[in-house]
Amino acid sequence: MPTKVLYYNGSDFGASDYVVDPLNSSIKAANWKVPMYNSQDLTSKVSGYITWQSVAYVLSSGDLDVTETMSLRIGNRGKMGTNAYRNSSGYYEEGVDYNFDLVGNATAPMRTANTNPSPYTNVNVAKVGSTSWRKVTLT
């Protein structure tokens, strides 16, 4: 089974954050898209993009109960996965691995080269120490 490791950096999110639903203050939502790099270097090659559509419910404890859909685009192929977790910030925390089973195969329209389905069925996202980097491991 092939394995591919890529990285994304927290600085690529800019000032984006969760937005409170105007009709229900217990619901927050966010949409993000950032590049994935070949190494932990913002000048290294961008090999794809990762996006999230996240919805969080604010619990009485203040923690966020997050459900998210992630999409990965590597080259001209895309896959998606879903995940759910609960923590105080709604963001990936150090020391916790977040795993997504990948489903579907999408190939960019009008492509004639490299139209084989993506070989990856799982993605693991983990914070790299106390840095702003996240490691994306595709298997």
What would your notes on this structure say?
With 139 residues, the chain is mainly beta. It has a single domain (4-138), classed as AOC barrel-like. It is 0% helix and 58% strand. It has no helices and 9 strands. It has strands at residues 4-9, 19-21, 24-37, 46-58, 64-74, 77-87, 97-107, 122-127, 133-138. A 9-stranded antiparallel beta sheet has the order 1-9-8-7-6-5-4-3-2, with no helix packed on it. Strand 3 and strand 4 (46-58) form a beta hairpin. The chain is globular. It starts with a strand and ends with a strand.
Under CATH, the homologous superfamily reads Allene oxide cyclase-like
The unreliable regions are none
User: What class do helices, strands and sheet pairing give?
Assistant: mainly beta
Main sheet specs? 9 strands, antiparallel
| DSSP summary, beta strand count | 9
Number of helices: 0
Helix proportion: under 10%
Q: How many individual domains?
A: 1
Output the helix-strand order.
Answer: EEEEEEEEE
Question: What share of the residues does DSSP label as strand, in percent?
Answer: over 45%
- What is the level-2 CATH architecture name? Beta Barrel
Rg, alpha carbons: 16 Å
User: Mean pLDDT, as a whole number?
Assistant: 89
Through-space gap between termini: 7 Å
**Could you please say which CATH topology applies here?**
AOC barrel-like
How are strands sequenced across the largest beta sheet?
A: 1-9-8-7-6-5-4-3-2
So what's the CATH class? Mainly Beta
The shape is globular
